[in-house]
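== Sequence and structure of one protein ==
=== Format: two labelled lines per protein ===
==== Data for this protein ====
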Amino acid sequence: MSPVLAQYLLDRQTKVVGTVRPMRRNFPHELATARIEKGESKFVAAHTGMLAVKYRALQDKSNKKPKIVHMLTTDHSNCCVDTDKKTKDGTPVIKPHCITDYNRYMGGVDAVDQQLESVLAIRRPFKWYKKIFFRFVLQSALSAHKLCQRGGSKKDFLVFLHDCITAMISKAPA
């Protein structure tokens, strides 16, 4: 996601919500460098209808570093909503509305991206069309792995992928 892409889509009446890297060109520098406390959020609105958001989560479960999320949206205002969750001391957890919507609708896409990140084939410096081809192949293999798991298979995805490639190579003509 980039501010240029968000503006391009907004000009064509397409709303967008997505995460963005804070050092992207045209992302508000004052928002990227702003310090915020846990559970706090900051907003910067452009006159074009785009909203930049910086939010710091209360805790990051994966490591001890603070989890800071930067987002761009053309569909939300600078309001926060109650998430129906509570902290350890009983206070309600409040997040920006664009983050709760993003989490609600993008869960499956993020899960697939996380599962395919362990495979290094996409990171190599291939031409764009080869990257797209490998992405389709890996997503198809992940879908096949999920189907095998429903059938009772306990194989890890990488083991499953290795077995598929080995089977294809053994069937290949000499």
Summary: The CA atoms of residues 17 and 101 lie 9 Å apart. The beta strands are 17-19, 41-45, 51-56, 68-73, 80-86, 92-96.
